[in-house]
Amino acid sequence: MTVLLGVAFTLLTLGSCWGHQPDRLDQEPELAFQPSKYGSLWPLPQKVQISEVSFKLSSSSFRITDAKESAAGPSCSLLQQAYRRYFEYIFGDVKTQNVNKGSRKGPAELLELQVWITSPDSECDGYPTVSSDESYELSVDQPVSVLKAPKVWGALHGLETFSQLVYEDEYGAKSINATSVSDFPRFAHRGILLDSSRHFLPIKVILSNLETMAMHKFNVFHWHIVDDPSFPYLSRTFPDLSRKGAYHPYTHVYTPTDVKMVIEFARLRGIRVVSEFDTPGHTQSWGKGQPDLLTPCYAGSKPSGTFGPVNPILNSTYTFMRQFFKEVSTVFPDAYVHLGGDEVDFTCWKSNPDIQKFMEQQGFGQDYRKLESFYIQKLLDIVTATNKGYIIWQEVFDNGVKLKPDTVVHVWISSSANSEMSNVTASGYTTILSAPWYLDYISTGQDWQKYYKVEPLSFNGTEKQKNLVIGGEACLWGEYVDATNLTPRLWPRASAVAERLWSAKEVTDITDAYSRLSVHRCRLVQRGVPAQPLSPSFCPHEYKGV
Amino acid sequence: MTVLLGFAFTLLTLGSCWGHQPDRLDQEPELAFQPSKYGSLWPLPQKVQISEVSFKLSSSSFRITDAKESGAGPSCSLLQQAYRRYFEYMFGDVKTQKLNKGLRTGPAELLELQVWITSPDSECDGYPTVSSDESYELSVDQPVSVLKAPKVWGALHGLETFSQLVYEDEYGAKSINATSVSDFPRFAHRGILLDSSRHFLPIKVILSNLETMAMHKFNVFHWHIVDDPSFPYLSRTFPDLSRKGAYHPYTHVYTPTDVKMVIEFARLRGIRVVSEFDTPGHTQSWGKGQPDLLTPCYAGSKPSGTFGPVNPILNSTYTFMRQFFKEVSTVFPDAYVHLGGDEVDFTCWKSNPDIQKFMEQQGFGQDYRKLESFYIQKLLDIVTATNKGYIIWQEVFDNGVKLKPDTLIHVWKGNQEKYQSEMANITSAGYQTLLSSPWYLNRISYGQDWPGYYKADPQDFKGTEKQKNLVIGGEACLWGEYVDATNLTPRLWPRASAVAERLWSAKEVTDITDAYSRLSVHRCRLVQRGVPAQPLSPSFCPHEYKGV
């Protein structure tokens, strides 16, 4: 038997209040708020049973503790920090309360949540990987609740779930119902892409976004760190890259310390940091600090003064890449690096007589895709030598570059996404999907529903092919996004993607999702995240950060 | 001769960096940043001449003072507060500097800006009106610059212009060029509509938006304060309206003190607060605290339990409206109140047998627009009795309601062709009008939509000179379905900035490339002043937004 949770979060939505909309496009039926039997859980766990029995929690007595049997004790600072974080989410900024505990009577009280890491190696000091065990089991009961997880990664997710089960009763008392949860992710790779090249994103923005990602069980921060407009990554080996290629060499760069901080902040939340250094296209900013790296374009028989993609015919290019990616492989601990490879414009290569000569020598004819493949294959060898796996945008696969079998192909072109997913997996490659989740595209109305309804495995293919889909990423490209608008533009739209990638395939009830998401959005606001509204409504605690 | 201003704000925009865009719609040509000869002035003054001669400003010596001859002295707190505000905009949070002033030599220094109110009545303690004189003249010269304005309203605008002329040289020194400006608005009514009913907007959000409006010389805050979803206005006469109709009776209401604060905060910035109490439609939330106000809808022969627009056939309705608008007329000092009147759905009226009977008695036949007119005419009489003018949405005009000659008609419907013919019809009938149709900023799309807002011109319709003169301005509207405190500011600015320039600057100011350059730097200035105005294009600001 289940009960309605979230009394304190009741929303009001009127059917007739969408006024003053000259030519409103009603793509989506209007959703009415009805409390979900799953309260405000987001993303929905794989299995959850909420009973009618409820307990109170008091900030002066409630404790999150390590279970005696746990493989991770007080020395696991990842967990200790998480306990403090979730205590604060649950109780807010608690003023010292002089509660006379002895004299309290009344409803049953939940005193303790024990966290029990069940496998001998908790991975407390490690980094999360694509094959990390993220599962957990949560039993909320009196007087002690237990959160069991093989690794710390599952424990982090379980703490988030526990915090989402806490609600305020009608008198404002923190309450939780007896509940049992058994949970694990549907997909292993659940990511958010941010673009720090088109607009520089201050470290504070990146960190607070990681915080919000953890509230959604996202586990990959895809850091599209450099691109044409600017090169904010401060390379120790090639400091001129950011000195000359960043918007500003001091105020608009990520120092090694910054990068370390991002990686550790993410690790403490179970999030991988996958860096992208996109070549051979999207590299205008690289050329400013690394002479001869880019191809000189020609106008007729003379260099025009502009530059195209990375110059693939010079040995110096590969010497540079070898050193550069050696650095990248030590700076970023993740087992994967994203190598880009998208949207290579052949115009400049075609204009350059040295390139033309090289094409002839190599017998490439007029097929510049062969030249692109030539470059990429050399690059893949370089990166392979650093013991990293790689992710590449779909064009690299489309253009027939020879790939290692464990390459991850990232599908982003929306017009052909389904057939692309079929082709990539039929060739035996693992893949991640972003095509339907380009959140930089905005429109009036509730577009989260569109993101929510995507089914990543809806393409034609065998069971084996489907198993090659390891997840997806919501992308927020940076043309029109910076510190001023990133958070409300991303959240709660990306929340829809979070549930699609975590929860069971069958979780598709849009009305139930709307109800949970509405309350979840208010919880984000209460935690200080300016997540924008879904519809006319209110939160008990409106955003205060303006 | 003019020079390039705004060194400290240089932007970088690459033509080829719009990557990874599967089906990007290139509605607009890409705009390249080239420093404007008008620096970062926004909106562009009517006349401006910037010379090459530049002066330095030091936070320890520069002063804004009242001219001896000024009609407003130290007792005019509106101006004194504005001096402090603009000093802070120009110099930021200045740490105490111990400059050994005696030792300084070098470039010429500007020591003083004198503000001279030239008319005997400065209007310092008054409220701005639709006919306020907002003009000013600014002469930036050494050692003393002079800002002359007939009234305080022009002085406020002149201070903003002065602050926009200040830039940092390559060493970070505050600098300004010798400049002369002569300025006045093209349109008298330049507004922003915010909707505090679909989402409650905390007072802080409203105040900071007024602050940003002042940076754009906007002079009307159209407060769409109540609507179907909630009734946050706390009425002294009818406290049940918000007690029962607000999202929450304490945390989601505007108390009389709140409203007063908004009005005074706006007044100090030369901004009128025009409240809208929209009837007879858009009133679901009114019905909760005022029984019998709304029409009971019928399903067949029985009341369905739902309610429609205000019930126009009961005397109690008009008794209520008389008392309610009497209160409104005293709470809001502005000479106008916006009465709404849009989107009246006749379904419920049609279902109600009492209404049907009334229609027969009045000889309205089946024309429910006549019933609407019946209601509106009675309402207009009520409001007229409070000595207020009124603004109404275009439907009231379209439906043939008899209007007073000084009624202001607010055009919001339709595409360009439709709103232009509406403007022509309204003005040929002799009414004054306001335009909002092209400026519904709640509608969002991918890319740079500001050029579309920038290009719309309120006088661009077929009509005589006399008709054109009946257009008194326009408003950018940010309806609240998808907007609350979390996203209001970046969604509104700098998109509304485009509307600000269209309504203030001369008709001929239409160079989109020049606008792009000035607006890019202006947007960075907003960010530096703490306003999270979103970016126009891939670019950077020397000081990125720090408020996250």
Automatic annotation (TrEMBL), chain A:
Signal peptide: 1-19
UniProt keyword annotations, A-Z: Cytoplasmic vesicle, Disulfide bond, Glycoprotein, Glycosidase, Hydrolase, Lipid metabolism, Lysosome, Signal
Catalyzed reactions per annotation: a ganglioside GM2 + H2O = a ganglioside GM3 + N-acetyl-beta-D-galactosamine; N-acetyl-beta-D-galactosaminyl-(1->4)-beta-D-3-sulfogalactosyl-(1->4)-beta-D-glucosyl-(1<->1')-ceramide + H2O = a beta-D-3-sulfogalactosyl-(1->4)-beta-D-glucosyl-(1<->1')-ceramide + N-acetyl-beta-D-galactosamine; a ganglioside GM2 (d18:1(4E)) + H2O = a ganglioside GM3 (d18:1(4E)) + N-acetyl-beta-D-galactosamine; Hydrolysis of terminal non-reducing N-acetyl-D-hexosamine residues in N-acetyl-beta-D-hexosaminides
GO-annotated biological processes: angiogenesis; carbohydrate metabolic process; ganglioside catabolic process; glycosaminoglycan metabolic process
GO annotation, cellular component aspect: cortical granule; lysosome; membrane
Pfam families: Glyco_hydro_20 (PF00728), Glycohydro_20b2 (PF14845)
Residue numbers annotated as active site: 343
Domain (Glycoside hydrolase family 20 catalytic) ranges: 187-504
Gene3D superfamilies referenced in this protein's UniProt entry, alphabetically: Chitobiase/beta-hexosaminidase domain 2-like, Glycosidases
Keyword Transmembrane helix included in the entry's annotation: no
SUPFAM superfamilies: (Trans)glycosidases, beta-N-acetylhexosaminidase-like domain
Subcellular location(s) of the protein: Cytoplasmic vesicle, Secretory vesicle, Cortical granule; Lysosome
Residues of the Beta-hexosaminidase eukaryotic type N-terminal domain: 41-165
Gene Ontology MF term list: beta-N-acetylhexosaminidase activity
Xref: InterPro entries: Beta_hexosaminidase_sua/sub (IPR025705), GH (IPR017853), Glyco_hydro_20_cat (IPR015883), Hex-like_dom2 (IPR029018), HEX_eukaryotic_N (IPR029019)
Disulphide-bridged cysteine pairs: 76-124, 297-348, 522-539
EC number in record: 3.2.1.52
Function statement: Hydrolyzes the non-reducing end N-acetyl-D-hexosamine and/or sulfated N-acetyl-D-hexosamine of glycoconjugates, such as the oligosaccharide moieties from proteins and neutral glycolipids, or from certain mucopolysaccharides. The isozyme B does not hydrolyze each of these substrates, however hydrolyzes efficiently neutral oligosaccharide. Only the isozyme A is responsible for the degradation of GM2 gangliosides in the presence of GM2A. During fertilization is responsible, at least in part, for the zona block to polyspermy.
PANTHER family: BETA-HEXOSAMINIDASE, BETA-HEXOSAMINIDASE SUBUNIT BETA
Assembly and oligomerization: There are 3 forms of beta-hexosaminidase: hexosaminidase A is a heterodimer composed of one subunit alpha and one subunit beta (chain A and B); hexosaminidase B is a homodimer of two beta subunits (two chains A and B); hexosaminidase S is a homodimer of two alpha subunits. The composition of the dimer (isozyme A versus isozyme S) has a significant effect on the substrate specificity of the alpha subunit active site.
Family recorded in the similarity comment: Belongs to the glycosyl hydrolase 20 family.
Protein name (record): Beta-hexosaminidase
The organism of origin for this protein: Fundulus heteroclitus
